[in-house]
Amino acid sequence: MTEERKTGRHPPPGPHIPRERADPGVAVRRAALEILLRVENGGAYADVLLGSRLPQFAEADRRLLTRLVLGTLAWRGRLDYELERLARRPLGEVDPVVLEILRIGLFQLRFLDRIPKHAAVDTAVTLAHEHRRSRGAHGFVNAVLRAASRRAIALPPRSRDEFGYLAIKWSHPRWLVERMVEWFGAEGAEGVMAANNEAAPTAIRLNLGRGGRDEILARLERDGMEVASLGRFPETVILKGAPRFDSESFRAGLFHVQSEASQIVARLLAPARGATVADCAAAPGGKTTHLAELVGERGRVVGLDRNLAGLRVARSVAQRLAHSNVIFVQADASSELPLRNQSFDSVLVDAPCTGLGTLREHPELRWRLRPEDPARMSRVQAAILSNAAAHVRPGGAIVYAVCSLAPEEGSAVVDGFLERNRDFVLDTEPPGMAEIRDLIGLPGTIVLRPDRGGFDGFFAARMVRR
After folding, report:
1. Enzyme catalytic residues
2. Among 194, 254, 267, 281, which residue's beta carbon has the most beta carbons within 10 A?
3. Is residue 254 part of a domain?
4. Whether residues 398 and 344 fall in one domain
5. 193-218 burial string, b = 16+ CB within 10 Å, else e?
6. Model confidence, pTM
7. pLDDT tens readout for residues 104-136
8. What is the pLDDT of residue 5?
9. What Rg do the C-alpha atoms of the chain give, in angstroms?
């Protein structure tokens, strides 16, 4: 999980946006503008803000709002390349509110075929009229977007600067394009970047401690949720559309929203029924409660995290899912932990990371991260893994996982750990792996990519203590 999202910090409010009015088309775009301004200028996270705004809209408008926000963020680099040429001025000279209105409008023109061009332009002009900082720029907004509706700006020649071309085509910062080509080759990098700009599937985890799968699925259907497909494990379900957080099945703790890749990581740990497990980076509680279900009522899970707000969220998740076999402790795993050495059957380290594997859900991260961040995070991750491993009993297992595609944060951390700790080895025959055997690459490790199977990008390794 990303370092920032592990902390549970909340950004300050963004600029004032007028209250919503009757026109639903303008209201959706007004909400998108408000969210994007807070993300771009206030350090907020789009998914958190969307979660608070979506209940205010009808189902179709929820889908549009989500698409506008996440799509505009994902394609920002490509949009800005066009806008600078259409506006004929550096975008640094354009007011941030005006720029965000232009991005929303251009995104619709380029990527939302079902929205008429005139609607994309007219609603953008309306937003410019409404906001006090853009009121005088409505003519400029109209001119730029009408020009965009008549012609598209061509991409630069690939032969002149391949990295620059790929950065604009797939809307990723240049440094990240260079790294991905290094990691995956040019063709693989394009596949990953293309997938990063698509919507992530909506995965949930059924709480099978509260009922059988068929029974819970029937209740989800009664609550208006439609199943698109079943996952690799009995508890994994992919929804068509968004989950209903206002539903009785959610309040009753019958499911929890959790990506399929995240569920695979908990399954890779494979704790036995009745086992004692430590989750050393427990917030916001998804994997912790998954482990609690896997070990059963006679097992015990200790969830540790340095962030008290994150632990409170995790505790509320455990309470809603009715898991009484979880204990939460505030502790920083990058330092010595308040646990007895070699006292746990299984330990999970879902380490704080750059989040480079989650750019579909969190497209803003690509514009916030810096080239030095993977190496910086790897030092923190190495310390956490070393401290956590001290509490694995002989014969026990530890899983190290990051939702990042950077080798510095994944295989390099594990290689360094194994070199320093000769009593640990990669588990070449993890138990109960029939469902995910095809995902295991090098013995004991899993690398997931968004362009292969639709998973979030994850690295995970299972090691055992001899």
Report:
1. 403
2. 281
3. no
4. yes
5. bebbbeebbbbbbbbbbbbeeeebbe
6. 0.92
7. 999 999 999 999 999 999 999 999 999 888 888
8. 53
9. 23
Q: What is the domain-level CATH number for residue 142?
A: 1.10.940.10
How distant is the alpha carbon of residue 199 from its chain centre? 11
Separation of alpha carbons 97 and 95, rounded Å? 6
Number of domains comprising the chain: 3
The reported pLDDT for the residue numbered 204 is 98
Q: Which residue has the tokens 């190496």?
A: 375
Q: Which residues of the chain are under the pLDDT cut of 50?
A: 3-4, 7-22
78-110 pLDDT per residue, tens:
999 999 999 999 999 999 999 999 999 999 999
Cα angle 359-373-52, degrees, rounded to a multiple of 5? 40
